[in-house]
Amino acid sequence: MNNNREYDIEDILNEENIEKIISKNSFRPDVSPAVIKRLPRYFRYLREIIRMGKTRVSSAELSRMMNVTASQIRQDLNCFGGFGQQGYGYNVNYLYTKICEILGVGCGFRAAVIGAGNLGKALVRSTMFEKRGVDVVAMFDVSNDVIGKKIGDAKVYSMDLLEEKLEKYSVDIAILTLTKECATEVSERLLKTGIQGIWNFTGKEIKTTENVVVENVHIGDSLMILCYEVAQKMYRNDGEK
Predict the structure, then answer these.
(1) Whole-number pLDDT of residue 28
(2) Which neighbouring-strand residues pair with 214?
């Protein structure tokens, strides 16, 4: 059996192909968090390479594009079986398919955004979810100004209907874009539903539980890291004068 079947970007997101693409061998709980954090970069760069029309890529070429050593790339991919052949490199479509498989693209995840403010609206209107195989099926808010309206393809519902609509739409992932003060109350409600994961933009830490995976996003932290790097560069430049 040829495991190197090539998939187009659209093909990978086709629900009819999910069972053909996903295998239990892709899920490796022993892989380090550092490797997992690099996988989305492989996803993005491989999409770019596919659009360029290339069918094969070496670890050295990926290294130059991603600013990661070729050795690190080989080590990362070897965590999941390697996917390459010495002297040949990587079949781009096959590697992209496997990275998508590992990251859960094609699983048909359904998401709901809780908080229809500026951040929530911006997220829903972006193409980010579609590109990663996530369908945003609903939004929730307390403001009568937005309840009942559609933002992107998602209708905004009252928070009073949270549990009912999450169950109706079989939502897997909740995206919190509401105020920090509301985070605890809403997360406690979510943990009592069938939610599998929470993407938390509130700035308040929500703890991972046995049944729910939580990704806490602190945009301010990223800004401060950038400020640190800029400051260090300025200090170095001043010292060289």
Answers:
(1) 52
(2) 198
CA separation for the pair 222, 61 (Å, rounded): 28
Q: How far apart are CA 123 and CA 164, in angstroms?
A: 23
Residue 207 has what pLDDT? 84
Residue 43 contacts residue 23 (beta carbons within 8 Å): no
Alpha-carbon 164 to chain mean position: 26
- Record the tokens describing residue 156, joined without a space: 């905004």
Rounded Cα distance between 153 and 164, Å, is 19
Q: In CATH, what number does 9-103 get?
A: 1.10.10.10
C-alpha to C-alpha distance for 142 and 50, rounded to whole angstroms: 43
Return the domain boundaries, the chain.
Answer: 9-103, 110-220
- Cα–Cα dist 68/62, whole Å: 8
| Cα 235 to chain centroid, rounded | 35
Output the pLDDT for position 241. 62
Distance CA 213, CA 236 (A): 41
- Per the DSSP assignment, residues forming a β-bridge with 141 are 158
> Which residue positions in the chain have pLDDT lower than 70?
1-30, 82, 84-87, 241
- pTM here is 0.79
Instruction: For residues 191 and 115, give the distance between their C-alpha atoms in angstroms, rounded to a whole number.
Output: 17
Question: Whole-angstrom Cα distance, residue 178 to residue 117?
Answer: 7
Q: Which CATH number fits domain 110-220: 1.20.1580.10, 3.40.50.720, 3.40.980.10, 3.90.1150.10?
A: 3.40.50.720
Distance CA 178, CA 189 (A): 14
